[in-house]
Each structure stands twice: as C-alpha cells, then as structure tokens.
Write a structure and sequence with these properties.
The two termini are 78 Å apart. Strands 2-11-14-13-12-15 form a 6-stranded antiparallel β-barrel. Strands 3-10-8-5 form a 4-stranded antiparallel sheet, with no helix packed on it. Strands 7-6-4-9 form a 4-stranded antiparallel sheet, with no helix packed on it. The chain is built from 4 helices and 19 strands. Among the domains are: 94 residues, Elongation Factor Tu (Ef-tu), domain 3 (Beta Barrel), CATH 2.40.30.170; 66 residues, Beta Barrel (OB fold (Dihydrolipoamide Acetyltransferase, E2P)), CATH 2.40.50.100; 74 residues, Helix Hairpins (Orthogonal Bundle). The protein is of the alpha+beta class and 388 residues long.
Length: 388
Amino acid sequence: MKRIVILLLIIAAACGGWWYWNHSHTEAVQYQTGVITRGDVTQAVTATGQLNPVLNVTVGSQISGNILKLYADYNSQVKANEVVAELDPAPYTASVHMARANVAYAQAALELAQLTADRKQALVKEHAAAQADLDTAVANLHQAQATLQIQQASLETAQVNLDHCTITSPIDGIVISRSVDVGETVAASLNAPVLFTIANDLSKMQIDASVAEGDVGQLETGQQVIFKVDAYPYLTFHGVVAQVRNSPVTVQNVVTYDTVVSVNNADLKLKPGMTANISVVIAERDNVLRIPNAALRFRPPETGPSPSPGAAPSPKPHAHHDSGHTVYVLAPGSTSPTPVQVRTGISDGIFTEVTDGLHEGDVVVNSILSNSTAGGQTGGGFGMRRPF
C-alpha cells in the first residue's frame, strides 16, 4: 500500500512538471496600448533666443578725460539731448583760449601783410621799388591768409572738443547699463569708450532666435510664436515672427539663421538678456483624431507571435491605402493585433493627426509589456519636443 502511494505521488509530480513546462512558456503576450481620441494638435518649430530691446544705443565719448559728473544711472528715464554725463572741461577750455589767441595773432599778421603789400604796390607804380619786392609782399599776404584759416580751423576743433565734454542721450529711453563712475578716466583712442547703454522702449522687445537650417524653410513672417523664460516658468508669452534673416551663422558646422520675433512687453516683465525658449506655430488642428506616436513606431518582433492569418480585420470602411503608416489595432475581445494602414497629418511630437484609417475609440498597440518567447519591449525612437 505504501509503495502504491509513493508511486502515485511520483506520477502526480511528473504530471505537474509536464504541465508547468508546457504552460509557463506559452504565456499570452501583454501589450501597452493607446486609444484613438479627439483633441488639438499643434505642429511647431522650436528654437532658443535672447530677448533684446528693439532699439539699443550705446553712448560713448569721442574725447578722453575724467568723468566730472553723472546725471543718469541704471534704470534712469532719459530724453533725447538730455545731459547724461560731463567730462572735466578744463584742458579743453584752455585749448580754446589758446586757439583764439592764435587766431588773433594770425589776424594781426594778415593785417600787416596786407599793409605791406599795398605799400609795395604804390612804390612800384612810382618806380620807387622793384617788382620782386611787390611779389614777395603779395606771397606773404597769401601766406598770412592761409595761416589765419588754419588757426580758425584749430579754434573750431578746440570748440568741438569742449562741446563734447557734455555728453547727451541720442534717444528717448531707459538706461540699462552704466560703465563708468565719477572720477574715472576714459581714453578715446581708436575706439570710443562706452559710458551708457540706452534702450529706446522696453514695452516693445524682440527675440533674436537661432533656427536650424532644417527648420527655417517652414518659417514665414506673421506666424504666431509662444515662448517661455526661466524667470516665469508658469507663464506663457506670445509674439509674432517679424523677420527671417538670410545671413547664415555657422558654429561648429551647424548652420542657423537669425529669426526676429516681435514681443509686446507692456507689463515690463521681460528684461533684456533673458533666454527665451520659443515655439513657432506652423500648423494647428482642432478636435481631430489623434494617435500616440509610439503606435506609429511599434513593430512586432520577428520571433514574437504574428497576427493570426484568420483574424477578422478591424471593421473600417477604409482599412488599406496605397501609402501611409502601418499601425496594429486590437479589436474588442481579440488578443492578436491586426495591421491597419492609416493616413496621418501634422504631429506635435507626442500625438499625430489621423486623417483616415481609424475611428475614435480604436485601441492601438504602443509596445509589448511582457512576452516570454519574444523577449522584451519594442517600439521607441524620438520625436519633436511638444510645444508648450
């Protein structure tokens, strides 16, 4: 009896092992799926740029000297021709006085040369002087006239330099940068030293964005732009493409084009120099069928279970087309996906518009979650960053 029990236990263990061996390796494939839904799809070109004033003027000094006074500081509102700084005028005042004295000396020399020439001319008429003496007197007269003109030009130069000691703003605007302090010496040699940077109107700004050559063909003047800055991570700002410049910029063999975006900054939240992450809206579709991009990339593995040849196709009025994408649809109650040809429209990097081939509510396969025979998840790849 004991031997019979042992024999039955051995048979039961063998049957259990056989069942486990045959059933543990035929586990059904589990899929990660998505549902065809309706929603909005926005296709955009993304880029990074910097916020700048529309008109940005640097105010410098044409002459060298010490800063005597400053009449403007950071964030000062200034008007056109308003005095913003003054250089020490003492050395230039002295130069003006010296130039005036030289002019007076030249005028006296001219008067003497004129009198001498008149006297020589009278003596020559009376044959009391030689013609050579008259010629010399006339030449001295012309030389005195030229010397007077030179000294007058020197006086004008000295006066201009003196006037440049007073530095004024060329435009109405706000001072966004000041580069000097009182008592500091500025040296104007080959380049004029920059004293102030003045922005015309910060309520209207622009973004100078670098757009890759592969995307610049999609840009046009007047397209809507949405962008964000790090200072306000929860706010979205808007702008308009004002200009797509033709001058290429090449950095490390990457060609980009400067795209100017006009921005309304009436609340003055945006500041010059901020980095803007922009998205230029190329196309928009409202309330359209959308498919996850992962479903467009999914392909069943070769070693995995292929769709059943006899499986009924999804009941679509347009299930096949000459061109498009192949997606795999799970019909209700089915465990095998059915390939379906679809036509697509624009994409935002996460969803793609479906124009034909699927219906709202259809279940599509994104990837394989588990499969003991096929081994692993399929699908993948990268898409565009979705516009914010």
